[in-house]
Design a protein that fits this description.
Number of strands: 28
Shape: elongated
Number of helices: 4
Largest sheet: 7 strands, antiparallel
Length: 450
């Protein structure tokens, strides 16, 4: 069985866009398993954008501290952007017209999780000391006089820095009764701000100038965008051939490796408030079940029903299949906690992030794959938003994605299942890079491409 030959290439897009500091450890010894194909080349922008940020004197308005960094952002005015495994590099410059006391200058990289605007936890911390007055003083001049005069800077200074972004972090999750610290390993989550869930994951580059004693210091904070890299496995050979040659997709009968058949599900209800009716749905989803942002998910649904009147009323617009984001806050009951006296709490929120479009699937009257008179078959596509946040888990927050089929929306039909309760669901992965194969195409007919 082939899908209808509507060919519309999708746009080729590049991959988008309180734990104590002592607990945040860059250790990458053991990371959670993540199925992706190992690759040596990633389709990411070059690291050529130079960003500059400044601290200015209040009285004169002169720029006395300048932070520069090089990133993969689209332009110099965009937020500095970094991808998995990258390094945050640049320099810190001081231009002091008169002598000033500076005890220490540090640059630090933070990864921070904020939930409900009042709970903040650091999951990443890396720091580099650029200047230390104590370290700069010669060993043989540690007298009281030299101590009072140390840290006096005037003129132009420049210090390079380099802070690596690890693939993951190892964070203390609990303390056993024997006093042993147990750790959880996480991959670095992407940067995002979800106003619906009131969750914010941000990365900050912070320069601190400590003037010592009781003098107030200065701080410059710069937000960064972090994007993890993962790609799906290549699709079936026949799927790749269809993408490469811009030909119709081969259906599940001819390309069983290219589709996953979900478990058949029954839809029960009442037609016109009088007649009990029942239909069976069989859904096929394109494989592998890991999809790149900005690409389509190909779908097929077959609806079998002995009631011809209900079958006639079912149209492509009746089918409701959505990509759902499931967000969890807290710890599962089986996970260890800092104190066993505190009960485990798990809160779940669900948001619909995209929905599928469906159209009639024409078959030649003599086709061996033609459906029975009691069956309707629709083809569908679900376009994944380019800015969708990939699934992640960090500390007491996590989110993942599911494809959910809901009861049909048919005039005169009242389903026995609530409209908001899924009839079936299938967990899927959302990633940031395309497979090492031809890019997916969209086959949605123009009249349905809204």
């Amino acid at each position: 069985m082939s899908l209808p030959g509507y060919h519309e290439s999708s746009t080729e897009t590049r991959p988008a866009s309180r734990v104590n500091e002592s607990q945040a450890n860059e250790s990458q010894a053991v990371l959670p398993s993540y199925s992706r194909r190992v690759a040596t080349v990633w389709d990411v922008p070059p690291a050529e954008q130079v960003h500059c940020f400044h601290l200015t004197a209040k009285k004169t308005g002169t720029q006395w501290l300048t932070l520069t960094l090089t990133s993969r952002a689209a332009s110099a005015v965009d937020t500095p952007t970094f991808y998995q495994g990258g390094c945050v590099t640049g320099s810190v410059k001081l231009d002091l017209e008169k002598e000033e006391t500076v005890d220490e200058i540090t640059i630090s990289l933070y990864g921070r999780l904020s939930i409900f605007s009042h709970s903040t936890s650091n999951f990443l911390y890396a720091s580099q000391t650029l200047y230390s007055a104590a370290a700069s003083e010669p060993q043989n001049t540690r007298s009281a006089t030299s101590f009072l005069k140390r840290g006096k800077l005037k003129g132009h200074y420049e210090w390079p820095y380099s802070l690596r972004l690890p693939k993951g972090v190892s964070i203390i999750s609990s303390i056993t009764t024997d006093g042993v610290a147990e750790r959880e390993n996480y991959r670095l989550p992407p940067s995002f701000a979800d106003t619906d869930a009131n969750v914010d994951v941000q990365y900050l580059l912070v320069v601190r100038v400590n003037r010592g004693g009781f003098k107030a210091g200065d701080k410059l904070s710069v937000p960064l965008t972090y994007i993890p890299l993962a790609r799906p496995s290549p699709p079936s050979i026949l799927r790749q051939l269809a993408y490469r040659e811009n030909t119709p997709l081969v259906g599940p009968d001819g390309d069983p490796d290219g589709w996953k058949a979900l478990a058949p599900t029954q839809i029960k209800g009442t037609l016109f408030k009088s007649f009990p009716v029942e239909a069976e749905c069989r859904v096929h989803v394109s494989k592998p079940l890991s999809y790149t942002r900005g690409a389509p998910i190909h779908l097929l649904i077959s609806i079998s029903c002995g009631n011809g009147q209900l079958l006639d009323l079912i149209s492509p617009q009746s089918v409701r299949l959505a990509l759902v984001q499931r967000i969890t806050f807290g710890d599962a009951t089986q996970k260890a906690r800092f104190s066993e006296r505190l009960p485990a709490q798990l809160t779940v929120k669900v948001f619909e992030r995209a929905s599928a479009s469906w159209w009639k699937l024409p078959f030649p009257p003599t086709s061996a794959s033609a459906p029975a008179p009691t069956t309707k078959t629709f083809a569908g596509e679900l376009f994944i938003p380019e800015d969708l946040v990939p699934g992640c888990q960090i500390l007491h927050y996590g989110h993942e994605y599911e494809l959910c089929l809901y009861p049909f929306n048919v005039v005169g039909f009242t389903p026995s299942t609530p409209q908001k309760k899924p009839l079936l669901s299938e967990r899927v992965g959302i990633v940031t890079a395309f497979a090492q194969a031809p890019r997916p195409l969209s086959y949605i007919p123009p009249q349905y491409d809204t």
